Amino acid sequence: MLTKVIEQAKIDHFSKWFERADKIVIVSHVSPDGDAIGSSLGLYHFLDSQEKTVNVIVPNAFPDFLRWMPGSKDILLYDRYKDFADKLIAEADVICCLDFNALKRIDDMADAVVASPARKIMIDHHLYPEDFCKIVMSYPKISSTSELIFRLICRMGYFSDITKEGAECIYTGMMTDTGGFTYNSNNREIYFIISELLSKGIDKDDIYRKVYNTYSESRLRLMGYVLSNMTVYPDCNSALITLTKAEQSKFNYIKGDSEGFVNIPLSIKNVCFSCFLREDTEKPMIKISLRSVGTFPCNQLAAEFFNGGGHLNASGGEFFGTMEEAKAVFEKALEKYKPLLTAKS
Ligand code: 5GP
Ligand code: MN
User: Fold this and answer.
1) Measured at the alpha carbon of residue 191, what is the angle toward residues 190 and 192, in degrees to the nearest 5?
2) What's the superkingdom here (predicted)?
């Protein structure tokens, strides 16, 4: 049995909207990851099975390794089909905001979502939800939004209507937001849910291979290159990897190719904090990815130095300036956080 994480009043409230709604739009965050796409499509398959008119809209493209997901071809990219997406958002009865807590996380879509008269619900697991949705299902202790989608559908009484396709999407989000169940994954209920998803006929081992083992040769060579240039800061138990635009073109970089790189330095003994600085291909900025193991709060460092945020162990931000400048800011941040980084836990 699962704990009732979502308050009953919120389930009842959403159930009322759900009964009356026909047109439902699901939106998720910029540079969608496995949980953004997994939770969106998990909910999409459920709503579709209930004869609703459902559309999933995300701000921009998602990585190739998520393209196998059932329903992914129907996802609308806002940066390519803005007018059509604006119309769907404006005419929706209900908008479900998944896997993000702040309007700036949906970029240019924010204006349309705010302006829409639709009823809005947030289903998310990031700290400090902003106040732009009437129903807020925000549970930072839950390791993925996809898990919340499973819990929501079950609590509404529709477990039997979850299809194999829907279960595959939910599983993918749960898997990717926990690094294949290697972090934030000690809650035993996760494994109860997996067991329920397996009862729908999913092949979890195949999903793992499709997500993690279908990369290109050049991606692996890029990984080798990035790691060979890694800087380790033994005094701070930290490591830094970087990737410029010039280096990206040398390795025929495509979106998603550097996914997971930031985790690799954490496999060095004693390294508990890792930073990845990557020049963005779309905007003139450097994208920051931070990961930690244990209690080091990378979200605090992200907020203080990189105008970002996120989870304790996985966060990010943005930097407008050169790679050298970003690296200098990172080293300044290391100095400041050295006591925490070297504290014995
Ligand atoms: P990633 O390193 O995978 O891009 O991001 C990891 C996590 O950090 C995301 O799930 C999200 O919670 C957070 N994050 C990433 N980029 C930003 C950002 O620019 N601003 C904020 N507030 N959070 C971010
Ligand atoms: Mn997530």
Assistant:
1) 95
2) Bacteria
Contact residues for 20 (Cβ-Cβ < 8 A; gap 6+): 93
Across 258-271, b (16+ Cβ under 10 Å) vs e yields bbbbbbbbbeeeeb
Q: Which position has the higher pLDDT, 216 or 66?
A: 66
Mean pLDDT of 273-279: 98
Tell me what the pLDDT averaged over the chain comes to.
96
317: CA distance to ligand 1 center in Å? 6
165-173: average pLDDT: 99
Nearest CA to ligand 1 atom 11: 310
User: Would you call 178 helix, strand, or coil by DSSP?
Assistant: coil
Question: What is residue 268's three-state secondary structure?
Answer: coil
Ligand 1 lined by 34 (C-beta under 6 Å) = no
Tokens of 47: 């709503």
* Whether residue 309 has its Cβ less than 6 Å from ligand 1: yes
Q: What are phi and psi of 135, to 5 degrees?
A: -105, 125
What domains lie within the chain, and their CATH numbers?
8-212 (3.90.1640.10), 217-342 (3.10.310.30)
| CA–CA gap between residue 131 and residue 208 (Å, rounded) | 36
* Nearest-angstrom CA–CA distance, 231 and 335: 15
